[in-house]
Amino acid sequence: xxxxxxxxxxxxxxxxxxxxxxxxxxxxxxxxxxxxxxxxxxxxxxxxxxxxxxxxxxxxxxxxxxxxxxxxxxxxxxx
Length: 79
Fold this sequence. Notes:
By secondary structure, the protein is α+β, with helices and mostly antiparallel strands. It is built from two helices and seven strands, in the order E-E-E-H-E-E-E-H-E. The strands form three sheets. The protein has a three-stranded antiparallel β-sheet, covered by helices on one side. Strands 1-2 form a two-stranded antiparallel ribbon.
C-alpha cells in the first residue's frame, strides 16, 4: 500500500489525489484483460474498456491492468 499524502490546513485534513489514469479509447481493442484483473475497469456497450474512476489516491490493481494491456492503451501518472 502506498503512503497517503495529507494536506493540513488549520484543523482540517484533506486527502490528495495522487494518481491519474489516462486511457486511450481509440487504441483500446476491448479484450477485457484490464477488467479481468481490476474491478476499477469495465467493458462498455461499445465493447471498449473504461475505468470507473480516473483519479485515485492509491494505484491498487490499476497498475496490473496497465501492465497486462496488450496494446498499452492504459497509462498511470503520478500527480
